[in-house]
Amino acid sequence: MAEAQKEAGNIIKNAEDKIISMIDEHEITKGAHGKAEEVIVNAQNNAKEIRLGTLQYADQVLEALENRINKLLEEIIRRQKRT
User: Fold this and answer.
1) Residue 71 has what pLDDT?
2) Cα-based torsion angle of the residue sequence 22, 25, 26, 31 in order, rounded to the nearest 10 degrees
3) SS (H, E, C) 37-82
4) DSSP code of 17?
5) Which whole number is the average pLDDT over 50-73?
6) Distinct helix (H) and strand (E) counts, the chain
7) How many CA atoms lie within 13 A of 72 on its CB side?
8) What is d(CA 42, CA 35) in angstroms, rounded to the nearest whole number?
9) pTM listed for this prediction
10) CA 83, CA 76: separation in Å to the nearest integer?
11) What pLDDT is attached to residue 68?
């Protein structure tokens, strides 16, 4: 009888240990998911900033090109009027 009670106590202790371990793992998993979510949000924000910066740069380059083409066109028209 004492042996059975001792074994039952061991089974209960093992079950309690397993439950505590599972709870700890669950908390770690929740924390990992939260951190992963944070990383994803930061990556999306960085990608958005890069996209916007790229569009602004492209607009600046195209505007500078347009200005240069307009100046060249004006010069061509001026030269044609002289001849």
Assistant:
1) 97
2) 170
3) HHHHHHHHHHHHHHHHHHHHHHHHHHHHHHHHHHHHHHHHHHHHHH
4) H
5) 98
6) 1, 0
7) 6
8) 11
9) 0.57
10) 11
11) 98
d(CA 32, CA 6): 38
1's enclosing H/E stretch is none
Pairwise CA distance, residues 83 & 77, whole Å: 10
Report the half-sphere exposure of 36 (CA within 13 A, side-chain side): 6
Residue 56 pLDDT greater than 90, yes or no: yes
Q: Kindly state the tokens that stand for 78.
A: 């001026």
| Cα 57 to Cα 70: distance, rounded to the nearest angstrom | 20
2-6, 31-35, 72-76: which is most confident: 72-76
Give me 3's structure tokens. Answer: 């042996």
Identity of residue 62: L
Residue range 12-24: mean pLDDT, rounded: 84
SS3 at position 6: helix
